[in-house]
Amino acid sequence: MEQRIERIKKQLHSQSYKLTPQREATVRVLLENEDDHLSAEDVYMLVKEKYPEIGLATVYRTLELLTELKIVDKINFGDGVSRYDLRQEGANHFHHHLVCIECGAVDEIQEDLLDDVEKVVESRWNFQIKDHRLTFHGICYRCQ
Ligand SMILES: [Zn+2]
Ligand SMILES: [Zn+2]
Ligand SMILES: [Zn+2]
User: Fold this and answer.
1) Hey, CA dihedral for 130, 70, 89, 113, is it positive or negative?
2) 72, 73, 94, 132 from 91: Cα distances, Å
3) Rounded distance, CA 17 to CA 57, Å?
4) If DSSP codes are grouped into helix, strand and coil, which group holds residue 62?
């Protein structure tokens, strides 16, 4: 955890941003809840437990900054709520999601599996792909 915070700090510094205590508290909440897909409100409620004086706008700006620096990815599962998801370190693409239509659980696939699809799209549409989002909607193994 501390090492990851150190690395995130360096990433911020390299773009001339500081890891202020409020930003650090936000990053810690994301790390502590890495398996979850928290909305800005969720993050805010958790940060507030340690920093009661922090405002939603500050948390929101930090999340936007982390998104810009590609430390987190912003994702929407179709319910109109933006969620923030830590990027795997060293990942050159955003992981995929399995969203259960019964219980709402969100599981992750770190493996990419889409190299062939990307090649087809790049050549047929002459489109330079930088990344992609992939969400499967279905019934998870727990609900089957
Ligand atoms: Zn995820
Ligand atoms: Zn389920
Ligand atoms: Zn992928």
Assistant:
1) negative
2) 11, 12, 7, 13
3) 18
4) helix
Range(s) of the chain covered by CATH 3.30.1490.190: 91-144
Q: 26 by DSSP, 3-state: which?
A: helix
pLDDT for position 68: 93
pTM over 0.90: no
Indicate the fold that domain 91-144 takes in CATH: Dna Ligase; domain 1 (3.30.1490)
1-90: in CATH 1.10.10.10: yes
Residue 114 Cα to ligand 1 midpoint, Å, equals 17
Q: Is 37 marked within a binding site?
A: no
Average pLDDT value over all residues in the chain: 93
pLDDT band at 93 (very low <50, low <70, confident <90, very high): confident
Contact 8, 18 (CB under 8 A): no
For residue 130, the CA-to-ligand 3 centroid distance in Å is: 10
